Amino acid sequence: MVNYKYERCSVCFKSLTNESAHTLTTCNHQYHKKCITNWISGGAEHCPRCRTHATLIDIKALHVEQADNDDGDSDNELTQSTSNMTIQDPALQDNKINVIIRDLTNHKISINDLAITTKIVEVKRRIEQFNGVHMDQQRLTYRGIPLENDRTLKDYDIVESHKIIDALLRWEGGKM
């Protein structure tokens, strides 16, 4: 019997099953079909985890089949019929985390490879690199608490991947 542990969907963070698992052919990250379809259809043309370019045609069902125990196996084929495979978020291997930035229109971007000691000002700089919104115009909150530039992710208990930080834009007022 083949034991395969699926990742969690990086969009909704719910568990995947053999029936629900889909993958992007560009990077092999796993999602629910509805989640990744809505993500890409909503204007994001990249993987939410690694930001590799992706389109709707890159979404494929992920199939894991049980290997047959065939007596006619040759020496150059895999003969062991069981395996236990776990895929871990590569960022966690280096004590790095990935956070999700969500704006008021529910548009999400993923900021990858952050240390928990990363200052909020650096997160804002990375957001500016992605969408061009200057750091001074960004207001970030986590669980309703405003994030201060000189504090770290750890100061706000953002120590695991896939935490959602809300982003608000502050626009300069004009003269009438």
UniProtKB/TrEMBL annotation:
<protein>
    <recommendedName>
        <fullName>Ubiquitin-like domain-containing protein</fullName>
    </recommendedName>
</protein>
<dbReference type="InterPro" id="IPR029071">
    <property type="entry name" value="Ubiquitin-like_domsf"/>
</dbReference>
<feature type="domain" description="Ubiquitin-like">
    <location>
        <begin position="97"/>
        <end position="173"/>
    </location>
</feature>
<dbReference type="GO" id="GO:0061630">
    <property type="term" value="F:ubiquitin protein ligase activity"/>
</dbReference>
<dbReference type="InterPro" id="IPR000626">
    <property type="entry name" value="Ubiquitin-like_dom"/>
</dbReference>
<dbReference type="InterPro" id="IPR018957">
    <property type="entry name" value="Znf_C3HC4_RING-type"/>
</dbReference>
<dbReference type="Pfam" id="PF00240">
    <property type="entry name" value="ubiquitin"/>
</dbReference>
<keyword id="KW-0862">Zinc</keyword>
<keyword id="KW-0479">Metal-binding</keyword>
<dbReference type="InterPro" id="IPR001841">
    <property type="entry name" value="Znf_RING"/>
</dbReference>
<keyword id="KW-0863">Zinc-finger</keyword>
<feature type="domain" description="RING-type">
    <location>
        <begin position="9"/>
        <end position="51"/>
    </location>
</feature>
<dbReference type="GO" id="GO:0016567">
    <property type="term" value="P:protein ubiquitination"/>
</dbReference>
<dbReference type="GO" id="GO:0008270">
    <property type="term" value="F:zinc ion binding"/>
</dbReference>
<dbReference type="InterPro" id="IPR013083">
    <property type="entry name" value="Znf_RING/FYVE/PHD"/>
</dbReference>
<dbReference type="Pfam" id="PF00097">
    <property type="entry name" value="zf-C3HC4"/>
</dbReference>
